[in-house]
């Protein structure tokens, strides 16, 4: 037992052992691993020497990685002191119903399809398929309206990222038009 635990904390620690703390400590380990991975990638990133200003491409990953490490440490300390996550109360969920695997699999298929199609078709077309497919998977059945909204949303997203923010997205066959 670590010396920095108080007597009260040690009682909670011994009382809570074996009551499901393994899964919560597992979440802490996953967060720790992600934090180390993000920080390692950020600190070994090659940065152009001509970078302007104090905020460069390393800043956000370092902040995110440090945040992940901090949350992992705080969660581990809380769990070891006897803290437990609140059980699902099912406010708007009927816990007696099984999971809707059809929706989950449809969404996963739409995301994977977008990842495969974004390079050959470009973001405007692949994004429209993504938005329309997600709407369909989540239950919308407006076959006349949904594709138009998806195309408009995809084009607006493409223009904002590509033209206004300077983040190049693949244009695909529409590269010369947009």
Description:
With 178 residues, this protein is an all-alpha fold. It is built from six helices and no strands. The N and C termini lie far apart (64 Å). About 4% of the residues have low confidence.
Task: Considering the chains and any ligands shown, give keywords for the structure.
single chain; 178 residues; mainly alpha; 62% helix; flat
List the helices and strands and how they pair.
Blueprint: H1 7-16, H2 21-43, H3 59-80, H4 101-121, H5 123-137, H6 146-164
Helix pairs in contact: 2-3, 4-5, 5-6
Structure described in brief:
With 178 residues, the chain is mainly alpha-helical. It contains 6 helices and no strands.
Largest sheet: none
Helical content (DSSP H or I, runs of 4+): 55-70%
Structural class: mainly alpha
Helical segment tally?
6
Q: If you average the pLDDT, what whole number results?
A: 84
Q: State the shape.
A: flat
Order of helices and strands: HHHHHH
> Termini separation (Å)?
64 Å
Query: What proportion strand?
Result: under 5%
- The radius of gyration is 23 Å
Work out the number of β strands: 0
Low-pLDDT segments: 11-18
């Amino acid at each position: 037992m670590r010396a920095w635990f108080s007597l009260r904390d040690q009682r909670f620690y011994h009382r809570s052992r074996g009551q499901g703390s393994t899964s919560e400590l597992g979440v802490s380990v996953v967060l720790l691993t992600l934090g180390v991975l993000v920080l390692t990638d950020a600190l070994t990133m090659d940065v152009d020497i001509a970078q302007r200003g104090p905020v460069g491409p390393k800043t956000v990953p370092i902040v995110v990685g440090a945040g992940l490490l901090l949350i992992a440490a705080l969660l581990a300390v809380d769990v070891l002191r006897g803290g437990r996550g609140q059980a699902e109360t099912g406010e708007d969920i009927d816990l007696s119903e099984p999971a809707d695997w059809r929706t989950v699999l449809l969404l996963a298929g739409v995301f994977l399809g977008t990842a495969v199609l974004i390079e050959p078709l470009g973001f405007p077309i692949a994004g429209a398929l993504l938005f329309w497919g997600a709407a369909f998977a989540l239950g919308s059945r407006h076959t006349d309206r949904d594709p138009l909204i998806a195309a408009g949303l995809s084009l607006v997203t493409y223009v904002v990222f590509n033209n206004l923010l300077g983040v190049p997205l693949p244009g695909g066959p529409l590269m010369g038009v947009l």
